[in-house]
Amino acid sequence: xxxxxxxxxxxxxxxxxxxxxxxxxxxxxxxxxxxxxxxxxxxxxxxxxxxxxxxxxxxxxxxxxxxxxxxxxxxxxxxxxxxxxxxxxxxxxxxxxxxxxxxxxxxxxxxxxxxxxxxxxxxxxxxxxxxxxxxxxxxxxxxxxxxxxxxxxxxxxxxxxxxxxxxxxxxxxxxxxxxxxxxxxxxxxxxxxxxxxxxxxxxxxxxxxxxxxxxxxxxxxxxxxxxxxxxxxxxxxxxxxxxxxxxxxxxxxxxxxxxxxxxxxxxxxxxxxxxxxxxxxxxxxxxxxxxxxxxxxxxxxxxxxxxxxxxxxxxxxxxxxxxxxxxxxx
Length: 330
Fold this sequence. Notes:
This protein is α+β, with helices and mostly antiparallel strands. 54% of the residues lie in helices and 7% in strands. It has a domain at 239-299. Keywords: Signal.
């Protein structure tokens, strides 16, 4: 017979063994900052503390995520033509046309409901993941935890996204360890961050759940809803090319940013030549390529809306030009 003292010792050892995963060296659960975050999630959202610690006990920091998100040590000079060549190219155009054909019904419905042109929806999904071919290989919980706790420059943003992922998983009845995506935590065909999934993703295929990886319909509807919610203006232009008067200095206009605040007529005294309608506010966009003339464009409200998806004028123009190439080819 086992003595009471020995029984107590066995019980203590078993308890320690079961507690070890939450404190295992190298896992996130062993860290004081993560445990403090867990306490906040328990207090603010009513999470089960032990369940969260058990999840964090199963992940470790991912050095590849930090390497991927850090700016290059030698960034060089940005090139619009090099950037454009990655996205507006035959392979992506051909894949986009196939995607459009395969999902024409969802695209037509989403365009009608949200007022966003079909080609723009197709172009965004093409730029983001080549129509689902490249949605990311990282465990999302581990990627976001790595950025939230080991990347100080953007820790606040990624702590919010980590919080959103846990809420998203709970709302969907899913294991937070089951999500996979980009090194920055973006998910599915449209590469929505968890907070964007919670706020703007829609069950467009009507099956009772939002699934951005396996449901092209949900991805299509969610992209269109995102753009509408950020101010897309149906039937209005996205951008228009302009030229500069010789010797003019466009820098003051460029420094005003990409939010459309000036009428084109107000830009003409500063050397911007355009026949664009004077009734639409715009921003002056510069697309720089080393050893080539800089391209100048007007960015209207719809151009600005695309930059809400990715805050880059290169990105917005690549989406626009891929959309135009797809529309023309179709």
